[in-house]
């Protein structure tokens, strides 16, 4: 028979002799063919439909809605489950599950040799230590097995020799494991250890930290920046930031570094980027800034900066660096940049400089920023201002004051700290600033300033307290020139300087600008200062970001490029 019985029934003429009319309507949700498993309907709850417009539901959204709708099983009138809820049906007893008889189930999925693993580990270490390279894709290999920590190493003696198989009825050991075999070897071992014994290296009777001098500040004023509230703000900023910017003072960069924060980021947050900004470069000579840049660039990406809304330095370099970090994180809609550092280091001033207006409260005194603050630089870059934090390092009260951690008006007996100012600042600079011809000692210095400025008490006695606070304020605010050199500067480094190197770096750069460079700087500033308030500006910025993606990625290297192993992906 050419046709089946069902087809003959469909083609039979009706009672009136007319041919049957076939319905052209089809169920949209049903599959076209019997063996087809995907329905081609356009229902809004069909996860297999073609998505034609951007406003239609995605496949994941439809599946989630179906999960809400079909979360309960279907029951009959007696309460028996006819159709189980999704992921709640049970296989009947005796169901046999077949596994494809393929050799891939019995072979190794990822194999790597010892030489390749060592090459990978060596190249990986070079990339991590290089401040100008970023690991783009992490490997799936168990690299953590190669990074053993000595503090976590212990002898798993119960895993190798349990108590039951050592001393119990099921003991397998014939004799105890001893370091010596006989009495003579034990005596020789004891005599050798006795001859090598030194009392100074005995940890049981010698405390290494006992000889160290410690400074304890009983005054709560000198514990500024160490409270739990400030450290809580710091950790909130670190957790919310993709890039952490550490701001240091150019006059004393090593003394204002937060080594504790750097170690915390390397140990607990290795996925976050850390960069260093040397602020207040207008207060030190150019050769000092260059020297610190060369030293810090070996550890971290470093930028020299002068915070000023009208006449800034390093603004374009810092914004371009943040744009490169944003290009590295294309999977995120925006990145957050947190600014951390000592009090009075200039964190809020840098944020105001990047925005070209005063968006954060700033002042030349410590502790002006109380809580963290979110500021939008561009549509894809957000800035987070953080209060200044200080990790206790055993600094004396004078060192804490000269670093700008505390406010001078709250210091008692400020004249006790003037001698350190005279030691750090050259005599000719002090005489030039205060209009003095000469002075001998602290008392003579304060007395002459008091008479010159009219800071006198009853009977013509000089007001040492007020004058001392004035000198300390001038020192903190950069009116008295001074800078700190590295401890090994004299032995290992010789810098050939000229007249231009004695000027601040921002003044040298301004004098060297030509007319063509000024035009280029205006163009760069216009691009860097654009703050996105409308969608049109945001789209233009996205185009610029896409153009700069190639340049940003060219300075970074993925793991497969440097590992030396081609099959790590």
From TrEMBL:
Biased composition (Acidic residues): 509-552
UniProt feature, compositional bias: Basic and acidic residues: 46-55
Summary of subunit composition and partner proteins: Interacts with LYAR and RPL23A. Interacts with the nuclear importin-beta receptor and, at a lower extent, with importin-alpha.
Gene Ontology MF term list: GTP binding
Pfam families listed in its UniProt record: MMR_HSR1, NGP1NT
Protein name: Nucleolar GTP-binding protein 2
Function comment: GTPase that associates with pre-60S ribosomal subunits in the nucleolus and is required for their nuclear export and maturation. May promote cell proliferation possibly by increasing p53/TP53 protein levels, and consequently those of its downstream product CDKN1A/p21, and decreasing RPL23A protein levels.
The organism of origin for this protein: Strongyloides ratti
PANTHER family given in the database record: GTP-BINDING PROTEIN-RELATED, NUCLEOLAR GTP-BINDING PROTEIN 2
Chief localization: nucleus
Keyword Transferase part of the UniProt annotation: no
Presence of the UniProt keyword Mitochondrion in the record: no
Family: Belongs to the TRAFAC class YlqF/YawG GTPase family. NOG2 subfamily.
InterPro entries registered for this protein in UniProt: G_CP_dom, GNL2_CP_dom, GTP-bd, GTP-bd_ortho_bundle_sf, NOG2_N_dom, P-loop_NTPase, TRAFAC_YlqF/YawG_RiboMat
